[in-house]
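Q: I'm writing a short methods note and want an example of a predicted protein-small molecule complex. Could you take the sequence and the SMILES for thiamine diphosphate and return the bound structure as tokens? Please keep the output block clean; save any remarks for afterwards.
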Amino acid sequence: MRKTKDLAQLQAIARGVRRHIVEMTGAAKSGHPGGSLSAVETLVTLYFDVMNHDPANPRWADRDRFILSKGHAAPVLYAVMAECGYADTPVDQLNTLRKLGSVYQGHPDRRFIPSLEASTGSLGQGLSVAIGMGLAARLDGKAWRTYVVLGDGEIQEGQIWEAAMFGAFHKVDNVVAIVDYNRIQLDGFVKDIMELEPLADKWRAFGWQVVEPDGHDIASLQKAFAEAAATKGKPTVLIAHTIKGKGVSFMENNPKFHGVAPTPAEVEQALKELA
Amino acid sequence: MRDAFIRTLTDLAPQHPELLLLTGDLGFKVLDQYIARFPRQFLNVGVAEQNMSGLAAGLALEGHTVFTYSIGNFPTLRCLEQIRNDICYHGANVKIVCIGGGMSYGAVGFSHHATEDLAILRSLPGMLVFSPCDLWEAAEAARYLVSHRGPAYLRLDKSAAPVNVEPGEAFRPGSIRTVREGSDVTLAATGGILGEALLAADALAEQGIFCRVLSVHTVKPLDTDTLAAAASETGGIISIEEHAVDGGLGGAISEALMEAGVFPGFFVRMGLRNTFSSAVGSQQYLRKVYSLDAAAIARTVSARLARGADRFLTVAAR
Ligand SMILES: Cc1ncc(C[n+]2csc(CCOP(=O)(O)OP(=O)(O)O)c2C)c(N)n1
Ligand SMILES: [Mg+2]
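A: Understood, no commentary inside the block.
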């Protein structure tokens, strides 16, 4: 995979990914646009700049691993992998999301898309699997790294904190977790349902290196991933400050668009905004 | 059985550098020798079974053969969704080992009894389910699982049935082991409780009733052929398990025979009936309380044979 650090280029890719997300969920009449849009820059930065991977050879042994633990944001992952050119995520079929016979299941499914590292959908489980992979790399003396994206609502799950404790105690420094801190979960705002603050302090108390990038500023994300790579002896978490529904005015910070697709008129307006 | 399992793992670990043993803080010192010899092939992950199962899946997806090891329901029910999604859906090479199958933990109490695990684990797609009756089966199942690829569950009992291993006998995963021949009744048991079936068979033999005793060490996949033969060659089948009758061995046998269109002369499921094993006492005592000991098995056989005779008489009188 040819990587790029060029901000203008990465931002253009991000804009295209956002258009895909709107169109896919609009065509499916269901899906999760909000949490997909908030994670766009994170995934674009990872797939086009940070991670070593080869879309032409998806099982390349030394590739970096990626797990979308918040599996409901599948549209952003599908769109990014499609833009990378993975054969099992064709761009021209993105709009078959959730349709009969599509490889694009509502949640990432390795049985349909073998290039995926893991099938996800039940929140709270991905960090453990990622740390298991990180341990494997260490045991086998490999240099590849593992990245896992978590939702902020998701980290209310107890298993996340089991895994956090484990990762720090065992110094699994080849794993990077990214919390998409968009402050909205399914039924509303995190602060009203079960507040996570002080979130950075929690991760620090669990022994993690904490970096707090602006999750929509690619340069800020690049810097954060570089800090993660330089951090030895403990895992790193990026608490990426984001806006749910980012890029589409009427979706931004609007809990309604967690799991509701845009109408055809809304798709049209959103695509205008993302032109 | 636990020790037989660990001995087998200790024997095989050197030839299998990909083998990893994870425990959720339940080594109880019995793992010490293994740990001392293979520190790189062991990890105590703390009291965190959901994380343990997810870690195991991640390690297995990267080529390791991972055993998760704990007691009672902790490696299974506590982390069922991790087993279902992370392990089974990915076909990950993880072997889940429960020590303390059934009511092994006796007076420790119902929280430590695994009495729904067979039903739940066998319902998971891709999962193999082993429940050995003696030390030989436990060791052989463990040996098989080290080389087998894919998810499996191994339920180990504290008790072990006294079964003679025939010279040259081979452990056949997926097959039922006939431990005693007989044609009046079939006693199909899984786990150490098979020892009670053997005692019952001894007592019944003195009355001229000869039991065929089957060790169903592999609950999934189930050996339907041997069961179908038992259904047609013996008077009836009694399933015996230290487990709920719902969905466990008895459930599995009845499903298999119904689907095969083979109907035993009679069929009784012996196990826990809609109850928790909450009485206080040893495994042996609990078997008595819940009517699962040799005496209860013998009573059940006699009652069913008598009932069968009654039915025969009524039919003849008509
Ligand atoms: C274990 C589990 N419980 C509940 C759900 C249903 N669910 C899907 S998304 C979601 C909210 C997640 O919020 P968050 O992690 O903040 O996601 P994001 O805002 O990034 O979309 C819930 C409750 C689930 N998928 N898994
Ligand atoms: Mg959120």
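A: Remarks, as requested: Residues A 35, 151-153, 182, 184-185 surround magnesium ion (ligand 2) (CB under 6 Å). The two ends of chain B are 53 Å apart (CA to CA).
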